[in-house]
Amino acid sequence: MLDEHLLIVGLNPAAENILGISQRRAHGQPLLQLVDDEPEMRDILSRVVATGDHYANEMRLAPSEANSNERVVDCRVSPLNTEDACLLVEITDVTRRVQISRENRLLIQHGAGRQMVRQLAHEIKNPLGGIRGAAQLLERQLKDKGLREYTAVVISEADRLAALADTLLGPGGPPNKQPVNIHEILEYVIRIWAAEEQKQPTIRREYDPGLPLMELDRDHMIQAFLNLVRNAAAALDGQGTLTLRSRAVTNYTIGDVRHRVIASIEVEDDGPGIPPEIQDSVFYPLVTGRPDGTGLGLPVAQELLSRHGGLIEFESRPGRTVFFVRIPLGQPVEPDDG
Predict the structure, then answer these.
(1) Which of 80, 117, 201, 273 gives 285 a disulfide partner, CB atoms 3.0 to 4.6 angstroms apart?
(2) 86 three-state secondary structure
């Protein structure tokens, strides 16, 4: 509850939890100060004070000392007519609901992208064998070395396109799961990436040593994480910090399946962020924000994780982009009805 100056005069336990402050400490403080002067919150409070109407909106609360992650909340503001309060503010944390909805969109996007990319790959690959074979036959008939250079280009480009199609199709067959240490895989990925990059950002590791061995296809995981690390490093262009983080998360839902515990592996960079105009489509094939990018790294990584019942999510803003790799540990609990 707020007075006419938008100062807190009452706070229930749920609000204490969301705002990360006790009623005793919050009394007399401006609500806007506790939510980092969130513009939408300020606008809604001003409107209700001015008009006496009821307003409601969904908004994002920036990370704070009490809550390190951005949260999505439903905010409803109503006029009050009591001795010491003129506004009632109801805040409901809907972060998890929004996250589940977003995960479902990612899964739908991945399914559509996978179908599209495989159709594209088949359309590319089918005529390539004929083109390559015809170029080889023509090469045998040509006596002029200069002319044979042209057929060599045709053969080379046909091979390159065939390799691209194989990448689009992805590795075939079910994953060959074996017990692996995810941190050993991450270190192996860093060694591969470091060998091919001259300009390297600072690497920071925040590993949870308590994570158990995981039943994964080692080759699939190496390829998926290598794609993510390459993308993060390309965004940094040799500057800044690339952070690898691991932790266990309990009672987590992937799609419509709830798991008792999952591993969350995070690849974070402090680069410029993903352009807003492509954030909703980065897991579609051939979508990239870099002039030299292929747009295949993220779709391939998402495909490889999906074969393990996992999912890749991300958050991005200037100065902080994080890709979260969610991998189930053990058997799922039950379908989650949301």
Answers:
(1) 117
(2) coil
Residue 113 lies in a domain: no
Q: Is 285 helix (H, G, I), strand (E, B) or coil?
A: coil
Asked whether the whole model's pTM tops 0.70, one would answer: no
Where residue 338 falls among pLDDT bands split at 50, 70, 90? very low
Distance between CA atoms of residues 202 and 236, nearest Å:
10
Q: Is residue 117 assigned to a domain?
A: no
* In a shared domain, residues 163 and 178: no
Tokens of 19: 């705002």
DSSP code, position 213? P
Whole-angstrom distance, CA of residue 24 vs CA of residue 180: 50
Domain hosting residue 156, numbered range: 127-169
Start-to-end Cα distance in the chain: 30
Among residues 168, 156, 155, the alpha carbon closest in space to that of 124 is found at 168
Confidence of residue 264 (pLDDT cuts 50, 70, 90): very high
Higher-pLDDT residue of 234, 100: 234
Whether 62 and 209 map to the same domain: the answer is no
Whether residue 194 sits in one domain with residue 146 = no
Asked which of 113-127, 262-276, 315-329 is least confident by mean pLDDT, the reply is 113-127
Quote the CA–CA distance of 308 and 296 in Å, as a whole number: 19
Instruction: Tell me how many domains the chain contains.
Output: 3
Residue 100 lies in a domain: no
pLDDT per residue as tens digits for the range 167-187: 666 655 677 889 999 999 999
The residues facing 79 across adjacent strands are: 87
Contact residues for 212 (Cβ-Cβ < 8 A; gap 6+)? 329
Give 194-201 contacts, CB < 8 A, sequence gap 24+: 197/233, 197/238, 198/238, 199/237, 199/238, 200/233, 200/238, 201/233, 201/236, 201/238, 201/239, 201/240, 201/241, 201/242, 201/269
